[in-house]
Amino acid sequence: MTKAYLNRRTAPHITTLVIATATGALALNVFLPSLPAMARHFQTDYGVAQLVISLYLAATAALQLLIGPASDRFGRRPVMLLSLAVFIVATVAAIFAPTIEILLACRVLQAFAVAGMVLSRAIVRDTVSPELTASRIGYITMGMAVVPMIGPAIGGFLDEMYGWQSAFGLTLTFGILAFVVVYLDLGETNRNRTSSFGAQFRTYPQLFRSKLFWGYALTAAFTSGSFFAFLGGAPYVSSEILKMSPSSYGLYFAILAIGYMVGNFVTGRYAVRVGINRMMLAGNFVTMFGVLLSAALFAAGFVHPLSLFGPAVLIGVGNGITLPSANSGLVSVKPELAGSASGLGGALQIGGGAAMSVLAGLFLSPESGVYPLLLVMLGSASAAVLATLFVIQAYRFGGRERP
Fold first, then answer.
1. Per CATH, which fold does 204-397 belong to?
2. pLDDT tens digits for 282-325?
3. What is the dihedral of CA 70, 75, 79, 82, to 10 degrees?
4. 14-201 has which CATH code?
5. Fewer Cβ neighbours under 10 Å: the N or C end of the chain?
6. Looking at the chain, which residues constitute the CATH 1.20.1250.20 domain(s)?
C-alpha cells in the first residue's frame, strides 16, 4: 500500500517517527545551559539541580520496561498518544513548579517521552523486514540526531532572553506538535497483541533465554557505553586538562553529533545490502579505531582539543552504524514480542551506557590525563565487538547466517 502523509490507514511517515523520537532527546538536553539558573531560582545546590538529568535518565530506563509490553498488549497508537499526553501535562507543570522537588517529579513524568524512541523501533519492525528495519531506524536516528546538536544552543539563547522556564516552553510546543502529528498519521501497526498485560511480562523469560537477544542487546549496550563514557569524561578532560571553556566544548561536541549522523546515513544506505550483523561489526571497529587514534595522538604529545574531538567523530560514526542494526536485531529475534524487546533492550542500553559514564569519571585526574577515559571507551567498544561476534557465531551454529 502506498504511504500517504497524515493518513492513519497507511504506515506512518518517517518524519512522524522522527518527531516522536526527537521529543525525548529535546527534553533531555535543551535546558542544560539553564541548570545554574534553576539552582539560583530554587535556592538549591547545583548538584541538586543536576538531578533533573539523572532522574530523567533513570525514569527513562525504567519506563522502557513498561511501555514496550504495554504496546504489545494494548497497541502502539494508544500507548504512544497516552505517553505524549503525560509528557505535555508534566511539561506544563514543570514551567510553573514552585519547588525543586515538584520540578524533579515533573521530570520523572516527562520521561514518558521515551515512548517515541521505544515504539518507533517497534512500529518500524511491524511494517518492514529486519534488514529494512535497520535502514529505516538509521534514517530516523539521523533525523533525531539534529536535536542534540542544536538543542543546548537554543536553550542557552532562550535562557538569556526569557529565563529558564522558556526552555520548557519549547519542549511543550514540540510535545504538542508530536501529539498532533502522531494522532493524525499513526494508525495501529501491532496486529498480534498479547492476551493480557501480565502475560506480556511473563514473556520476558523468553527474551532472557534467547542468546540472540542478549547478543544484540549487549552489542547495543556496550556500543552506547563508549559514547556515554565520552559524555561522562570529556567535560572533565576538556576543562581540567585541555583548559577549554564551556562554549568551546559545546562547539567541539557538535563534531561527535555530526559523526553520528554520518553513521546513521551509512546505515540507511547500506544495511539492506551488507546485512545488520556485518554493519554492527564494521561500526564497532570504526569506534575502536577512533579511540586508538586519540590515544596515539595524545601519546605523541599532541595535547589539543582536536586530539580528543577529532577522532571522536569516528566514535559517532561507529555508533551511528552499529546501533540501528543492533536495535533492529533485538526487536526481530521474536517479532511477536517486538515492543517488549525494544523496551528491555533500551533499558539495558541506557543502563549500561550510564554505568560506563560513571566509570569514566571515577579515575580521571590532572595526573592521569585522558588515558582512563580512553581505556574505558576502548574496553566498552571491545566488549561490543565480542558481543557482535557472538551473534554471528550463533547464526552460524544454528545453520543460518544473516547476510
1. Growth Hormone; Chain: A; (1.20.1250)
2. 999 999 999 999 999 999 888 888 888 889 889 989 988 888 88
3. -130
4. 1.20.1250.20
5. N
6. 14-201, 204-397
> What pTM value is reported for the model?
0.69
Which grid cell is 304?
589539543
Neighbours of 323 (CB within 10 A): 26
* 145-185 per-position pLDDT tens digit: 667 667 766 777 787 788 888 889 999 999 999 999 999 98
Task: Collect contacts of 56-59 with beta carbons under 8 A, ≥24 apart.
Answer: 56/27, 56/28, 56/107, 56/108, 56/110, 56/111, 57/28, 57/350, 57/354, 59/107, 59/108, 59/109, 59/111
Q: Which amino acid is at 343?
A: G
Alpha helices for 237-304 (secondary structure H): 246-274, 276-299
Alpha helices in 75-192 (DSSP H): 76-95, 100-110, 115-127, 130-144, 146-162, 165-185
Cell of 273: 545490502
Provide the total of helices (H) and of strands (E) in the chain, helices listed first. Answer: 18, 0
- Cβ(216)–Cβ(329) below 8 Å: yes
